[in-house]
Write a structure and sequence with these properties.
Blueprint lengths: L2 H7 L13 H12 L4 E8 L11 E11 L2 E11 L11 H25 L10 E5 L6 E5 L17 H23 L6 H4 L7 H7 L1 H21 L3 H10 L3 H10 L5 E3 L8 E5 L5 E6 L6 E3 L1 H11 L3 H4 L3 H18 L8 H10 L1 H16 L16 H14 L5 H16 L5
Antiparallel strand pairs: 1-2, 2-3, 3-5, 4-5, 6-9, 7-8
Length: 427
């Protein structure tokens, strides 16, 4: 189908980003999904995400009409496209697109093969049908999870115990299966065989100054909020001490330590989709968006999730039960794979606590994003490149502007710092 016809059939106004989707891309995704005999009759780009759902790339969909064995059919793919967005003029989207596409196309099938080999269900991640890593034009075609009932939870409300337990069990499956895969890998180091997994959150901080500055600004916002709240002088003084050491903290707490597993790397509300029972209870979770996946200690994912994506009254009283649920799933997979579980529940808890500093910093980064859907978050109808840092800056500014009228802001920050004070991480 010619570009002109595609534009006329778009459900939303066409953009420069949409034009990166070509019929060749669509045909290759269709072939991978339905087989070489499937032939396109028409296709169109249809946006479906709302502002605030995506911060780095454009997520849209492609509706495809095709013929197979003489029958007309339709399929929809979710498509991630390089949006051209930057951090302060620095673009690292080629890095994150490589990581995500190779995770889906290379690592996930190997991990799931290991799980099937020991009689366990596969890790719940979307199917990937096609990816192109042409620089500046990166694109990934994924299965559409909406017909299967998967949707995002209310991120402002935060995850409750049932949602959190499902996520922890899925993370345990991913982590343990990757460790089993590593045991079958020559040299025993997945990071060596998949070098893109070495480029996680800390890598971006080291190599992209604007990314680092954004993390610093999140810490400064937290300090300003606690100053306004009052009575938290120990917290504000502590934040002053960690700001010059942010790089070292992320290096030590997100990259160092054993065992090393394949981590999701960006495990917060936005990257989790749930399927619910008719009664509204969460039954399954789908892990999505592996743009920051990395080879690192498993408790980095646990800190990321537990500090970024729930309120303190869910996290604090349930830490031990959450980690026990994670450990049970992890142990089951390791034992069925005839491998030794590399840590006890007590060691897991200690390692989790040893990394609570980075967990608290991640909370400083993501709480403003969780609580605000800014006007500029992600507007897929705009052709111009957006600076992601401007989006994050607006969220930080809104946090300060509405501090006295939005009770969620104080409670989310106070729950984190009260916990660190209680644990004497802040002394």
């Amino acid at each position: 189908m010619a570009d002109k016809e595609v534009k006329e059939n778009c459900a939303t106004p066409p953009t420069a980003t949409h034009s990166l989707v070509t019929e060749d891309h669509v045909q290759m995704a269709l072939t991978a999904d339905k087989g070489a005999a499937a032939s396109i009759t028409s296709w169109k780009v249809v946006d479906f995400t709302k502002r605030g759902d995506n911060y780095l790339c454009l997520v849209t969909s492609v509706e495809v009409q095709y013929v197979l064995d003489g029958r007309n059919s339709e399929v929809v793919y979710v498509v991630k496209i390089n949006s051209g967005k930057t951090f302060g003029g620095e673009s690292f989207l080629d890095v994150v697109f490589e990581k995500e596409s190779k995770f889906y196309l290379e690592l996930a099938p190997q991990i799931n093969s290991v799980l099937k080999g020991i009689g366990h269900k596969e890790v719940n991640v979307p199917k990937c049908f096609y990816a192109s890593l042409e620089k500046g034009r990166e694109i990934i075609f994924l299965e559409d999870l909406r017909p299967r009932g998967y949707k995002m939870s209310d991120r402002k409300r935060g995850l409750d115990e049932a949602h959190t337990t499902l996520v922890l069990q899925e993370l345990a499956t991913l982590h343990a299966a990757s460790l089993l895969l590593q045991s079958k890998t020559p040299g025993g180091d997945l990071g060596v065989h998949h070098l893109y997994m070495k480029r996680g959150f800390a890598y971006l901080m080291r190599n992209y100054n604007s990314f680092m500055i954004s993390v610093e600004n999140s810490a400064i916002l937290a300090k300003n909020i606690m100053t306004r709240v009052g009575g938290y002088e120990r917290v504000t003084a502590w934040i002053d001490t960690i700001i010059p050491k942010l790089m070292d903290i992320f290096n030590e707490q997100m990259e160092c330590g054993e065992p090393k597993v394949i981590c999701h790397g960006d495990c917060w509300n936005n990257n989790l989709l749930f399927r619910y029972s008719e009664a509204g209870h969460p039954e399954e979770v789908m892990l999505v968006d592996f743009q920051l996946s990395q080879h690192g200690p498993p408790t980095t994912d646990l800190n990321y999730l537990l500090f970024s994506s729930m309120t303190g009254d869910v996290r604090r009283p349930n830490i031990e039960s959450f980690l026990e649920s994670y450990h049970r799933t992890f142990s089951s997979i390791m034992e069925d794979g005839h491998q030794t579980v590399p840590f006890t529940p007590e060691q897991l808890l200690k390692d989790f606590r040893d990394r609570n500093t980075v967990g608290s910093i991640l909370a400083m980064i993501f709480v403003p994003l969780v609580l605000f859907e800014t006007e500029k978050s992600v507007d897929s109808t705009k052709d111009s490149e957006e600076d992601v840092d401007k989006v994050l800056l607006e969220a930080r500014e809104k946090s300060m502007e509405t501090l006295d009228t939005n009770p969620l802001i104080k409670s989310r920050y106070l729950s984190v710092f009260d916990e660190l004070l209680e644990l004497e991480i802040i002394s």
